[in-house]
């Protein structure tokens, strides 16, 4: 048995050799694109801001748009850094709950603030100079999987451990 194991190991170490195949065409280079902006939420803008996507960022209907709030800053050996939190983001204030929200189309987006109290009494620190980071993640709608609509609950129960 030992000679057989040695022979098998020898064959595996040899591997396959031969001419290298042709180089295939380059694949698409898709990167997420990111931009930042600052907003003052005031009664004059109804505590919301409409932001058009920068011209150099093309957003398609299927793309994912993710928005982050610069919640705070922190000092590190690299200097001051933003701490980002994803929207929606709810904060607890002395007046009640305040929430930063957003919605979007493929041409623009809206960031806004909602609260369970009158925003006229909100702290300026929660409304002014609010910094946001937007990430546009390229995506495509999935093709319909044949037979998926024919599955029943029993089919999924079979997958359970």
What does this entry look like structurally?
It is built from three helices and eight strands; from the N terminus they run H-E-E-E-E-E-E-E-H-E-H. The chain is mainly beta. The longest helix has 13 residues, at 2-14. The two termini are 39 Å apart. The mean pLDDT is 86.
Present the secondary structure layout:
Layout: H1 2-14, E1 33-39, E2 48-52, E3 64-76, E4 79-86, E5 89-92, E6 97-104, E7 108-115, H2 124-127, E8 130-137, H3 153-157
Number of helices: 3
State which percent range the strand residues make up.
35-45%
Helix content: 10-25%
Q: How would you write the strand order of the largest sheet?
A: 1-8-3-4
Give the radius of gyration. Answer: 27 Å
Distance between the termini: 39 Å
Briefly, what is this?
The chain has 161 residues and is mainly beta.
List keywords for this structure.
mainly beta, four-stranded antiparallel beta sheet, 3 helices
């Amino acid at each position: 048995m030992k000679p057989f194991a040695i022979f098998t190991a020898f064959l595996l170490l040899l591997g396959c050799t031969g001419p290298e195949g042709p180089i295939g065409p380059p694949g698409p280079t898709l990167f997420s694109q990111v931009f930042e902006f600052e907003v003052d939420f005031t009664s004059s803008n109804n505590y919301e801001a409409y932001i058009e996507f920068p011209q150099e960022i093309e957003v398609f209907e299927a793309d994912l748009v993710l928005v982050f709030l610069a919640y705070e800053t922190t000092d590190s050996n690299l200097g001051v850094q933003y701490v980002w939190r994803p929207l929606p983001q709810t904060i607890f204030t002395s007046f009640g709950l305040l929430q930063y929200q957003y919605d979007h189309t493929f041409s623009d987006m809206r960031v806004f603030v909602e609260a369970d109290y009158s925003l006229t009494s909100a702290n300026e620190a929660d409304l002014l100079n609010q910094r946001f980071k937007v990430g546009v993640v390229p995506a495509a709608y999935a093709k319909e999987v044949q037979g998926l609509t024919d599955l029943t609950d029993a089919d999924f129960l079979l997958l359970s451990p």
